[in-house]
Amino acid sequence: MVQSIIPNNDNNKLTVLDIFPRFIKNSRGDLKPFDPDKLVKSLNKETGLDWNECIIIVKESLKKITILALKTIQTSMIREIMCLELMARGYIKERNIYAKLILSSVLKFKLEEAFIEKFKKIQPDWGPLGYITYKRTYARLIENENRTEEFYETIRRVVEGAYSIQKEHCFKLSLPWIPEKAQKSAQTMFEKIWNFKFIPPGRGLWMMGTEFIDKHGSMALNNCGFCSTEDILIKKAKPFEWLMDALMLGVGVGFDTKGAGKQIIKEPKDETFVFEIPDSREGWVHALRYLLLAYFDGDPIPVYDFSKIRPAGALIRGFGGVASGPEPLQEMLNSQKELLDKRIGSTLTSVDIVDMMNLIGKCVVAGNVRRSAQIALGSSDDEEYINCKQDKEALYHHRWASNNSIIGKKGMDYFKIVESIAKNGEPGIIFLENAKNFSRMGYEADFKDKKAVGVNPCGEQTLESFELCCLVETFPSRHDSYEEFEETLKYAYLYAKSVTLVNTHWNETNAVMGKNRRIGTSQTGIIDAFAKHGRRTVLEWSDKGYDYLRQIDENYSDFFCVPQSIKITTVKPSGTVSLLAGVSPGIHYPHAEYYIRRIRISNKSSLVDLLREANYPVEKDAYSDNSMVVEFPIHEKNFLRAKKDTTMWEQLANAIDYQHYWSDNQVSITVTFQEHEISSIPYALSFVEDKIKGLSMLPLTESGYKQMPYETISQDDYEKRISQLKPIKMWKTTEKSAGTVYCDGDSCQIIPEKKLIKKD
């Protein structure tokens, strides 16, 4: 008898697992055991759906999977089945997120490991505050390693994110994509950022390359935006919703008061319904929407259930940072209701609109967990608007939340605003007609921006309503030749243009950004560059650089099959990003050649002990029980002249020249003036009204506050302090950083505590 294997009857028993595939194959070809529980976890993590609902969707999807009778199934096939189930159950948004991740996971661009290895154990040429600023603000938490990123990891995430966007765009449109060429280009971009030749915006350092962008689109990658209330009778609550949504994503937002006198506030219906506020950004925005529509359209006011909102201090996954709890939202909704109750039967005034927007800004700040930047644009004839910050109680409660400017008119009477400017630097002036009619000033009007209605909070970008813009910063003082600078411009441009290839979650925003493709290639450390290369040389670089950017925009727009960018250059005020490289911010002069720069950090920060260990002076904040103040000795290497030694007219001349040679958007400048120059302000404004697009002015005074951000010191004092410091090393921290707002100049980071400091 021939030998045979006696069958094991146990193997013939059918189990539940036998009807499922044995293996799952991912996009890289890796095989892993099929695990239904992991499908539930994945769906919950990626879409944010309730856990029990995810179980139901996965169960229904498994029924379809079993019919296929496959031993091995592709992850893409599983996602397609799950997407159909989500669609069938009405989860359209969640379906779109889940479907998008199918493509993005397959098309992720990766830098070569051998290239990255060169940067793992070294540090770049930081400015004096560069590393601490980076760790405090931009290094994201790596949860599974209980530490925050190092700079090479941040740049890797950012560069891979930008090139993944390009790659996905090319695959969607069936455009050419050459991996070898992309790898070489990406490595050059990495090196440019590492060497501080250019830097993506703070928003980009914080969000680019994260799963949050894959799920929710590009809004969080943009520095700034604007929304108009002019068509409030049509758009209703939408400008307020959009502003809140954008601010919660770290975008600085401008708004106008053109809706004043149009919207009649109605008595809400004497009905109620319960709105259980979801623990999400969208949930907070919807809570505001329901309240406003109750007064705009006479709808019922909801009874709010805040029970699902996570408590203060809880980690915000995806976007990053920590939660503020429900209290700021509760206070904002109550304040809005109180304001609107008083207006029933009347129309909203310009100051009402400012207050409503400012209350949103105050809510978003949420105890300094998030930051908020706003600019209000009002009429130069609106005295109530111009003087609204004279109400100290309202100022301290919420009107600190916006920088207020007027829309300037050529030939206007500037004398009537001089007194206010001399006191506190407001209002700023935006020459909107110049911004609408001209690209670079001093050339023929091209009317490219004839549909523009406003600007971003620091005034460097002309914008249409619901438009966003991404800004990047170049460092001309970090270059030794124009040829090197020109190469940098290419990669700075390419980063910003990449951001325009991704849609946001707002249809109105996609419509305007899709046609304009506006970007802002900026320069920072301009005064440093003047000192290093000479003023005339830098202006020549700017003129040639602008023509070069226009040329490559034509080339890359053709390559990506998108419109050319309506405008491409700007000068932003900078601030935090300029600290990374150690240059003076934007087009502004430094405080002095040698000075102390003080920054505030949380007293619970792990950086406090690390700074003390490195011998930096650290002391308790005189104005806050929750903060510590750290002193950094600074030497401006490319020093030209201190702020106090520079006249108002010289600063204006710089703005005029950069508006002519470089910026086709705007030049953001805060012109400082001394007491003896106040009488000349009306004449100065009259002189520049047809040469620039906007400015703000600020008195240059000694405030007398303790622990001021800047304090001039001698060279000997500087050298003594610097000799006591230990070299920078890699600091392992677990900071819950929150990124930064789009506009990180001192005048644009709006934090209530700083606004309410009183002199002793």
TL;DR of this structure?
By secondary structure, this protein is an alpha/beta fold. It is built from 29 helices and 23 strands. A hairpin with a 4-residue loop joins strand 4 and strand 5.
Key traits:
29 helices; four-stranded antiparallel β-sheet; ribonucleoside-diphosphate reductase activity, thioredoxin disulfide as acceptor; 42% helix; 14% strand; disordered C terminus; globular; DNA replication; ten-stranded mixed β-sheet; 760 residues; protease; alpha/beta
Secondary structure layout plus pairing:
Layout: E1 23-25, E2 31-33, H1 36-47, H2 51-68, E3 72-74, H3 75-88, H4 92-106, H5 113-117, H6 130-137, E4 141-142, E5 147-148, H7 151-172, H8 179-194, E6 198-199, H9 202-207, H10 211-216, E7 224-227, H11 232-235, H12 238-248, E8 252-256, E9 269-276, H13 281-296, E10 300-305, H14 327-341, H15 350-365, E11 374-379, H16 383-386, H17 392-397, E12 403-407, H18 415-424, E13 428-430, H19 432-437, E14 454-455, E15 462-463, E16 467-474, H20 482-499, H21 507-516, E17 519-523, H22 526-533, H23 535-560, H24 576-581, E18 594-602, H25 607-613, E19 618-620, E20 627-635, H26 648-661, E21 670-673, H27 681-688, E22 694-699, E23 710-712, H28 715-723, H29 752-755
Parallel strand pairs: 1-3, 7-8, 8-11, 9-10, 11-12, 12-13, 16-17, 21-22
Antiparallel strand pairs: 1-2, 4-5, 6-16, 7-16, 13-22, 14-15, 18-20, 18-23, 19-20
Helix pairs in contact: 1-2, 2-3, 3-4, 7-8, 12-13, 12-15, 13-14, 14-15, 20-23, 22-23, 23-26
